[in-house]
Amino acid sequence: MTRPSYIFTSESVSEGHPDKVADRISDVVVDAFLEQAPEARVACETMVTTNRIILAGEVRANSKEQTKQILQSLEPKVREAIKDIGYDQKGFSWKKAKFSNHLHGQSAQIAQGVDSSEKKDEGAGDQGIMFGYATDETPELMPATLQYSHNILHRLAALRHAGTLEALEPDAKSQVTLLYENGVPTQVLSIVVSHQHKRRIEGKIATSKRMLDLIRPHILPLFPEGMITRKTQWHVNPTGRFEIGGPDGDCGLTGRKIIVDTYGGAAPHGGGAFSGKDPTKVDRSAAYACRYLAKNVVAAGLAKKCTIQIGYAIGVAKPLSFYVDLHGADTIDPALLEKALPEMMGGCTPRAIREHLGLNRPIYARTAAYGHFGRQPDNEGGFSWEKTDLAVALSKLG
Predict the structure, then answer these.
(1) For residues 219 and 301, what is the distance between their CA atoms, to the nearest angstrom?
(2) Could you tell me the sign of the dihedral formed by the alpha carbons of 301, 264, 386, 278, in that order?
(3) Tell me, what's the pLDDT at 112?
C-alpha cells in the first residue's frame, strides 16, 4: 500500500543538455525520413562532444535511392536544430562542428520480423515491456515533481530564446523535491537549478547568488500559491560558476535520459529509450499508447493513479500481456479495463497503435526535451497520445 506521507524528488534537463542535444538530432533524423516515407524504418544513435556530431544506426526508406537522398539531406537539418537550441560557442558551434554520418541500411533479418507479417498485421519491431502512467497530482495528469522540474527549464529556455535572460546559455538541469501528505503534494522542500551562463550577469561576474536573483522571480509563479515557503531551500549553481557546458563540457548520447523523458521515477520504466526510433519500434509507440490509455483512465475519474504495462515479442503483432494497476482504487475491476482498453486501440498491435495515434508523421523532434508526456496535443498531430478522447466512454464502465 502506498505510504500516505513521504518526500519525493524528480529532475529534468534542458534542450541544451548534451544528451538532449543528441536526442533532438536523432529525432530530426526520424522526422526527415517520415516526412518523405511514412513507413520508413529508423534507428538512429547520436553522439555529440567538443565540436563533433556523429550519427550511427540503421535506416530504410521506400527505396535505396530515396534512402540515399534523405541521408544526404541530413547535415543542414542537424545544424539547424543545433542553431535553434542556441549553440554557437567556441567548443560547440552549429556552424563549425564536424559532422559524421555513419547511418546505413537496416538489417534484413531485423526487418523481416516486422515486415513478414504485414499481410496480416505487422509484428513488433523488438521484444520488450513498456509502461504508461498518469496521476491527478497536476492538471497535466503527471507527477508533480517532474512536471514542475520541466516547467522551470521550459520557462527559462523561453526567456533565453526571447532575449529576456541574455546571461543564460543552453545547458541546464533542474530538480524539485516535494513533501506529500496523505498522497497530495503540499510543500516544496527544495529547488535545484544548475544553469550554464555567460561570464557576466548585467556587467558583473556571475555568481551563484546573482544567478539565484536572476531566475528566482521567473520560477516562483510556476508553483501553486503557498507551496513555496520560507523553508524552501534553493540551490542555484551550487558548485559556483557554470560557463563551460553542453557537448563541450560533457559528451552527449541518445537515450540516456529515459526517466526525465517519462515519469521522473514515479512509475516503472521498461528500459527502452524513445528518441531516434520510428514508431514501428514499440519502445516508443507502445509506451505512448500506455500513457494515452492510463491518462484516459484517470481523466475518466476511474482512479487517481493508473499504471499500465504491455509486453511484446519481436515479429508478433498481438501483445503478450496487458496489465492495469489502479493503485487501490475500487471504482472498477482492473480486469475489466485489461479487456476493454486494448479493444479501444484495435488490440494494441503495433499498426493499430500507429494508426490510432497517427504516429507515422514527422512529429518527433519536438518531443526530445521537456518530456514526452504532459504536453499539449498540437495541430500537426504531435503529442496525440496526450488526448483524453476516450474518457467519456471509459467513465461509463465505472
Answers:
(1) 31
(2) negative
(3) 54
